[in-house]
Amino acid sequence: MKRWLVVAIFVTVLGIWTFTSFYAIQKFTGQWQFQGLSVLVAAPRYISANDEDEIRFAVTNHKNMEVQVVFRLLNSPSLPSFLCSDLQNSMNILYAGTVRSQEQINQRCKILFPWDTSQPDTVLGRVAELSLWGGSNQTTLQKISDLPMVISPLPWNRSISLGLGPLLTGAVIYLGKQMWDQSKEEKKKK
Question: Left, alpha or beta for 97 (phi > 0: left; psi -120 to 50: alpha)?
């Protein structure tokens, strides 16, 4: 294979990988105090459309008594999504139950923003419009915070980024081998 073709493929793959990795590696971590509880959320800053992403949630009770709590993840009806489908509940509940004194509860929630070519502008590049709501001891749910998450402008962004990594590594190894062989040939000619 011609070396210039390998270099062209390498540069193209590197460019695509750089673009997708920019969106795939950025993370968001938010921490709030809510009715004597610490609430922590860790998630991707850019959600990859058509890839299932994960939000991690933790609540810590700093009170000297146990507390009954409910935390939900809500989104705008204008964006189609599947929230917390792995938790087997239809109300997008991150956690509902008792948190004892000085106890931390951890939970993971899968989210998916579907995208298809029939409606290309409905999801890509938009703000995810997710918000965290909570309540304790039978109080009405209150909005804790909007989550600053955006849907990446490229569907399957994370999968593409992960898939191009090995291809890029292979191209680097191949180019390195070609340069090594070329330098050995030049030494033989001298």
Answer: left
Q: Which of 110-124, 131-145, 176-190 has the lowest mean pLDDT?
A: 176-190
Question: 172 pLDDT exceeds 90?
Answer: no
Domain boundaries, the chain: 3-189
Fold of 3-189: Immunoglobulin-like (2.60.40)
pTM for this model (two decimals): 0.77
Query: For 127-140, what is the mean pLDDT?
Result: 87
